[in-house]
Each structure stands twice: as C-alpha cells, then as structure tokens.
Design brief:
The structure holds two protein chains of two kinds. Chain A is α/β, with parallel strands linked by helices. Chain A is built from nine helices and ten strands. Chain B is mainly α. Chain B has a single domain, classed as MetI-like fold (Orthogonal Bundle). Chain B is flat, with a radius of gyration of 21 Å. Chain B starts with a helix and ends in a 7-residue tail after the last helix. Classes of the chains: A alpha/beta, B mainly alpha. Chains A and B meet through helix 2, helix 3 and helix 5 of A and helix 5 and helix 6 of B.
Amino acid sequence: MADQTPVLRIQNIKKSYGDNKVLKGVSLELNRGGIKVVIGPSGGGKSTLLHCINFLVGLDEGRIYLNGKEIIHNRKRELTAYRQKVGMIFQDFNLFDHLNALHNVLIGPVRVKKLPKSEARERAVAELERVGLRDHMTKYPAELSGGQKQRVSIARALAMDPEVMLLDEPTSALDPELIGEVHEVIRDLASGGMTMLLVTHEVGFASSLADEIFFMEDGKIVEQGPPQKILFNAECDRTREFCAKIGRLHNNSS
Amino acid sequence: MLQGFIVISENLPYILGGIWVTLTVVVGALIMGLSLGLVLSVAQVYGSRVVRRTVGVYVWFFRGIPLLVLLFLFYFGILANLQIELSPFIVSIIVLGLISSAYQSQIIRGAILSLPEGQLKAARSIGMSDSKAIVFVILPQAIRLSIPGWTNEYTIILKDSAVTYALGVTEILARSRHVAERTYQHFWIYILAGCIFLLLTYVGTKLFQILEEKVRTPGYTQ
C-alpha cells in the first residue's frame, strides 16, 4: 500500500530571481526505492530545483508532498521535521568547519533528534563506518580530502534517518580520482533501497543507477524516460544533442 | 631624577593598586560588551527590518558620542534624575560595556557575514531551526573569527578606562594624578602610568593570542 503513494511528490514548482525565471513549473514523483537522475546544461535550474525541494530556497509557487501529505513550510515544526526526512547532499559538501567528522555527524542526532549522547555517538560511528571513514572520525574538514568530506556529509544526512536523499552534483567539485569512492557510497545506498533524486553530469554512473532520467533545460523538464532511451534514443532534438555531447566526453575520459 | 625614583618607590604600591581597578572595569566592560554584542550582532544579521534598524541606531549612538560625554550623561544626568544611586565604578563598567557592545556587535557581525552561506543551509538541511543553527553552527565559528578583533577592542577599552578617572574611579591614572599633584614629580609619575598601560596591553594581547591558538580549528591556517 505504502508503495503506491510516492514518497515525494513535487507539483508545479516555480521560482524566479527578479525577471529571471529559473524554474517554470517542474513536477515529478519519487516512488519508494526509486532513483531518478536529473541531467541538463548548467543554468537549467537543476540545483535550484533541489534547493527548492528542501525549502532552502523559497518557492514562488508549487506544492510538495511527503508520503501524500502536503508540507506547509511556514509551520516551523513541520518544516524541520520534513527536512529531517529529506537528506541533502551539496556540491561543495558544506561540512561544519569547526567540528570534526564525528561531531559533524553527531550534531544532528544530538541537537535535532535529541538522542542521548551515547546512543547518538554509536549511531554516528556506525554511519561513518558505512561510508568507510571510521579511521578518520577525529579529523576536521580542513584535514580531509574532497571525497572524504563528501562521504562525511552523506553520513551526516544518513544519521537523520532520511526517507529521501537529494544529491546536488555530489562529485562535481572532486578530483577525478576521488569520484569513485563517493560513487561507491551512493551505489551502496541505492542497493540498500534508498530513494534518491540525483543531479549529476556523470552519465555513465547515472545510467547504471537510475530507473528514470529527467532532462532539464531552461527551467523545465524537457524529456523523461528510462536511461537507455534518454541517453541514446531521445525524442527531443535538444536532449539528443546534449546527451551526444556529454556521452562523447564520458567516452573520451574513460 | 633621584627624587623621582624615591617618589615612585614610595608610592608604587598605591599606584599599582589601581591595576586591579582598571582591570575590573576593563574585563567587566568586555564581558558585558560581549554578551550584548552577541545578541546585537545576531539581531542585526538575521532580524527583521525594524530590528536591524533599531540595532543600527543603537550602534550609531554609542559609537558616535565621546566616552566622557556618555559618562557624564549617565552619571550626572540620567541616573541622578532617576534617583538611582550607583557608584562611579559601576557606572563606568556599564557605560564602557554599552560602548563596547556596539563595537563588538560589528566585529561579530563581520565574522558571521564572512562565513560561507552553505553553513546555514547545511544546518537547515538536517532539520535545525534557525535559532539552533545560529547557536550551534554559526556562532561557534564566528566567535573564533572574532578573536583578532577582540584583541583590538581590549586595547581600546583598556585605554578608554583611564577616562573614568573623571568620575572619580581610583584607577591607574587617578592614583597617579593624586601622587603627581602632591609630589610635583609629574614627569616620572606619568612615565610610570604609561609603562603600566603598555605592560597591560602587552600581557592582554599575548593572552588573546594564546586563546586564538587554543581554539583554532585544526587544519585551518589563518
């Protein structure tokens, strides 16, 4: 039964900065365990879409439903409860710079969930272990590599027990050799059944993981479908052109 | 010159006794300034338009009026009219504290604004309310960044505290003046007073440096 209601439903989100219409009415649904990937050119509104879904950027219009229930973002309690359920991974990690890896993960369970210290600590250690960073718990963000930072940020999100994860280009700020370790963690999440909405330029990775790809340009979802169709057999000319370009890039680099 | 040394050695304990008075005024004012400054800075960065304006007026007021004017205004003007009896010592701490809060609020505000926007976003994304995000994520970082500014603030308040002699607070300058007027050894006595202030500046800035080193986040090279 629960599987029939989408975990997350986004309806007609619009967002402008002044005259610049960044999102022109975007709708999408995420089913439990589903993995959707958003691709598209820079400036197309992908990042803004994810930020809007978490209300980190205020929306001008549109509705968001979690498990069928509309989120009223003006109600502070409702908003903070919703954000715990929707984990967010940022392009530039955004770890809390004054806290070591362990405390970055710990701060949510302790301050937001109000778990007892020992229980929260156990949980945080388990999450760091899950992303392969047990040996780096006492390091501060400035002492970690980009890939390690991103893995800490994934552990931080996981410690809140999210039902959905939003990943905003999680590897685009990383050196090529560090991308693999983050991809591996995301793959683990996927096989564990995590529902995810992922923005990425790594089409190879996306196609191996996604059950659906959205091509987004100019504030709209232009086309959507299974990876093979979008990447190799798209209906829309613009989608085909874009996928051919990044496909070439991907082949050259691999 | 010999006469000078004799006078100094005879009156040294009395003048040095002023150090405690000076330091109590300075530390009291700094602590009061910090507590108020934290609240003001958060209000000015995150508050509504009206709140931001109000803080702006407060800062303008206390940064814009000379210390001596404020001391006289509070001690002889406001408090006397309200028939509140406070010692010059307490009034000095309060007035210096209010002035310092205006300056400190701007030090902390600058530090808050220098933090990457992503810090607040990340805090919100794990379900923190804005007030929790400010207390547990923003301020711990902003306070670290404020320490160099506070070192400066300490030296300014230290020197400003000499002005409180005008209300009759028996700090270093007031005591030096008593001795100088009695003994006519103005030159040597004021050299001594100056040296005490220099020494206090030196020790204070060293202590702030140690503090800065202590709370520095590992891996950061600032």
